[in-house]
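Narrative summary of target 7.
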Amino acid sequence: MESYRFCGIINNPYADGIRIGSEIKNKLSGSSLILVFSNIDEEKTKEFLSGLGKHVPLDNVMGCSVRGTFFSNNKYYSDSILIYAFPPHLKSAITFGNSGEELNENIREELIRKYSTISEAGYKYLGIMLLDWDEDPNVGCKILNDFCKASSIPTIGGVASDDFSFNKTFLIYKGEILKNTCVLGVVGGKFRFDLFQIHGYEATNIYMKVTRSEKNIIYELDGKPAYERYVEGIAEYLGLSKSYVEENLCIGFSTLDEDKLFLSIFHPVGYISLDGKIAPLYIIESDGKYLKITREVNEGIYLSLLSFNLSLFLRKLKDKLEYYTMNFKSPSILLFECAGINFIKEKLLNSQVPYFRRYSPTTLDFEKYKNVYGWLTYGELLSKDLVRCFTHLTLSGLVVENSSIEFNIIEGLKAFEFNELEIKIILLLLGSPLFLEDIAKKLNISKYEAELILNKLINKGIVSKIGEKYRIENLKESLEKIDQELDLKYVENKLKRYLLLKLL
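Modeled conformation, tokenized:
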């Protein structure tokens, strides 16, 4: 399977949209789900989508606003777009909603509407979930948990981000801009993928017991006001005064200050599971007494003060990239990285503040990983097997194996004695059912010519017509019948050639 990826600066949104749409159409001969991560403003994003729609249907386009995009060693914090387009042989559908149950019902209905059936032997499904920014992390956590209770589809996603103003975020759905909701896309077929998540936090020797809490608000740690004990813990660990820690705590992304240390990101609290895994808990709000965090915590548990280790984070990421490079055929890797993690990475590498000079300027050269793309989120979510997590201060990854399967499909269809136009129509209908007018327009041929080809494919059992739409129900079953017919035809022709040569 070969996907299409693009990451770069957008100078002319409409013209660049047309150009990228043309590239997707020419490379993939159609497309399945298309992800658009936009680092340009809302109006320019609309212009870009309008241009994109000149060559590819926007029915399967989804995405969101982002703080930044990157690929290889290139980073863009303004005026950029990241595109990830899955190939047309994968089934796909998108929907939106405000609850996990609603998303599950909608996506099932959409898949059945488009393809009549969902389950087929050997098929795998992957979900991409994108949420608009919400100050309450429990909203995203509940949507993910409720969706996962209703669906077993492995899912990865993130929260729309912006320039840290937190008022310019938006979602993209079928070429339109949505807000205050969630969009979900699903791709399915015979393809290999994997999901992973990492962070760079280590537990310190500072532990604090939650002595009073309610949902995701901690009122007391070790019997003291939670904020006070948290500040004490950082001061104790770093050997700094409490007043200096408070001045540089900077709780909440909206408090970003290039001259401050942003200690709440470098040293959040977290809990350690029975298997030794660390879960960082981002502190999103405080009134100087309580701490509001990104996950509910129960009274009586112990939290550890954590410390971010850039070398550890990059080593974990490198290990993942090396593993997938060795074990997947030409993998394409899409990273969902917390904007806060990216922020402190940049501070560690570039800041002149003495505190940060104690860290060695460790970097990871992405140049050797040609197919690594990513975007910066305000929250990362992942559901895989029994793991469900809506987190901050982490990095999630989607790895898709790229073989040259779409090239093999084209060459394979030629071996079934389909001509070029017939193959193009087959590839189009693998993506989704289409009206006659749409097929003719996409192939730049007359409706009469398109109908003749479609009728021929119907007679061969490849295409069916339900209502006014043409679709492909089961390509494999249809090709197996044609394969038997071609084998029989070969034997008959071989016999005729033998008899003729014998007579001569």
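The mean pLDDT is 86.
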